[in-house]
Amino acid sequence: MGDRELERDIRDELDLEPGVDATAVAIEVEDGVVTLTGRVPSLAVHDSLIGIVESLRDVRAIDDRVAVRPQPPEAVGDAELARRVRLLLGWIAGLPPEAVRVAVVQGRVTLEGTLGWRHQSDAAERAVRQLAGVTGLDNALRLTPAVAPDDVSARILRALQRDAELDASRIRVRVEGSRVILEGRVRYLGERQSAERAAWAVPGVTEVIDRLTIA
């Protein structure tokens, strides 16, 4: 697919998403690399926008220059936003809120601390990204090294093979302790992200290094 056709497909997909104002975002495509510029009112809308673009098969990379600018009444001060984040984290099942430190600067939230499982970090990030007033998020949560099963590589390969969107034969998996290294080639950006998710889903994994290339 050519760049012009890909840009048209992106605009068509954005027009179908009621939560995204496609007229507020400029789109440029060059060699499959999509550059997005403009402003959106919330991080949730931003994430919807990026998710739509990532889902298209011929997108090789995204240059995200979209700014999040909350409008009243969503815009709140940093101290109040930090209070809301802490309150929100306290409602997440299985997440020890005392293990997470919250800092907010100009609406941008930073999460720090140590957790035992990747799904806890993901749950905290998903919740905060949906909170009104958040303009950005830095997830600096670390995972405690867990005892990884001996067959981590085999488990990841089986997960890759189960994913209908992936060609597992093009992906190599190396395991160094609790760290997983993905190498090889994928066809598009969405496939690359599916491979990362499959690696993170295996118990005992505390770091995933993505060396996959899109070709």
UniProtKB/TrEMBL annotation:
The keyword Signal applies. Keywords: Signal. This is BON domain-containing protein. The keyword Signal applies. Residues 2-70, 77-145, 148-215 form the BON domain. PANTHER family: BON DOMAIN-CONTAINING PROTEIN (PTHR34606), OUTER MEMBRANE LIPOPROTEIN DOLP (PTHR34606:SF4). Pfam families: BON. InterPro entries: BON_dom, Lipoprotein_DolP, Transpt-assoc_nodulatn_dom_bac.
